[in-house]
Amino acid sequence: MHAHQWKVSLNLSESGPHTVAEAVLHTDAGTELRHEGRARRHPTDRDVPEIGDELAVSRALMGLAQDLFEATVADVEQNTGAEAAISL
């Protein structure tokens, strides 16, 4: 059995009502994928920073998952020379 370790790091920044999260995937083969998610608090909402963090991170992770899937499809097609027949 060969074990692999991939790491995802999450970096958050806030500026006023805006929150930005960057999700970065690092594979043990050296591949790196990045995706950014954003959230904005409506002016009439209570100031609860954790909600903006959660929303921005969830958007970043969903985008990262989609980017990884698209990279996988491209890799399959490049290695088989045929259209990939995979789905989520």
Automatic annotation (TrEMBL):
<dbReference type="Pfam" id="PF08962">
    <property type="entry name" value="Rv2632c-like"/>
</dbReference>
<feature type="region of interest" description="Disordered">
    <location>
        <begin position="25"/>
        <end position="48"/>
    </location>
</feature>
<dbReference type="InterPro" id="IPR038070">
    <property type="entry name" value="Rv2632c-like_sf"/>
</dbReference>
<protein>
    <recommendedName>
        <fullName>DUF1876 domain-containing protein</fullName>
    </recommendedName>
</protein>
<feature type="compositionally biased region" description="Basic and acidic residues">
    <location>
        <begin position="29"/>
        <end position="48"/>
    </location>
</feature>
<dbReference type="InterPro" id="IPR015057">
    <property type="entry name" value="Rv2632c-like"/>
</dbReference>
